[in-house]
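Exercise 7.
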Amino acid sequence: MAFGFTRRYWRLVDYDSIFRAAIDRLHDEGRYRVFIDILRTKGSFPNARCFHGHNGPKPITVWCSNDYLGMGQHPAVVAAMEQALHDVGAGSGGTRNIGGNTHYHIDLEAELADLHGKQGALLFTSGYVSNEAALSTLGKLLPGCIIFSDELNHASMIAGIRSSGCDKRVFRHNDLAHLEELLAAEDPETPKLIAFESVYSMDGDIAPIAAICDLADRYGALTYLDEVHAVGMYGARGGGISEREAVADRVTIIEGTLGKAFGVMGGYIAADRNIIDCIRSYAPGFIFTTSLSPVLVAGALASVRHLKASAEERATQQAGAAALKARFRDAGLPVMDSVTHIVPLLVGCPVKAKHISDILLAEYGLYVQPINFPTVPRGTERLRFTPGPCHSEAMMDELTTALVEIWDRLELRKAA
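Solution. The predicted structure, written as tokens, is:
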């Protein structure tokens, strides 16, 4: 009887129309995301081959990769991955608890703990998972905890805070006065955690880490710093903004990724032994997930070790970012203020941003993805460029010339 009832009534809901309408809304708003089909060309980054919208591969130049330093192509990284593949095979064999706790994982966690000056580190399958798992678990372990979150925090941090079940207070972006006002309003005995990022990747600005740590000390709060867009990029050994500003020891938990400047895949947290042990022991996102392949871990290990010793990639990348910003400004293009390696170009309309991106790819072989809501607020849609150490001056000239031509063609507003 129950089965018959289900068969009789499920057709009353037109599920397909609901799903179609959801996709149609994205098209109507100009926010539908198109993932292009490309293959990077080993040894010649940022060159790639594009299979999107035509027959056969077309050579393109990639301008929006988060492989900021090209380490995904570095010979030492590739060689380490090849060696691991031949030594141990492809997969890890399971969760860390069952069969996937390889010596590669242990070595990499030791390197990451050392990178941030912490007692321990813990690997996750991605930066998203590390944020979601760590923040949700911390909130559940701290009775009555209130989490104070910067309004521009990444979606993974927001998801972790939501999953924690904690009360949360959202403070205006990098607004120390507002954060202190919120902290001061709570009971001094209440556990508190301040969650924020070092580099905010869509605007390219930096958090006042030391000042936030001052507030944390004053009001008895822990600090959780997302350094995903800064690890490998800043500091004498690539420890991020917290290393550059000599405040890593004041931050309770530092979270990072292995998929951006380190060029491979994975996420991690670094903290004292007790916190690491708690997350290791309680976080479902760690306990019940097959661990990273040792092939990936070997590559990340080689990358972290290389960038601890070499500042050349960081220096070349920073010089390239400054050069591209200068070219955009000199050409009258509306480049947004940024004090980091991120080079955002304001468009202000999702449809126009997508149109510019399409023209760049189809006519010029230049690839950059438009950034739309909800990644950025409505009305601030943009193109986000990430020049790396392998982008030449000729490539920058080609890009700038193409953008000026498109801006003129579409009669878009230039910088004042």
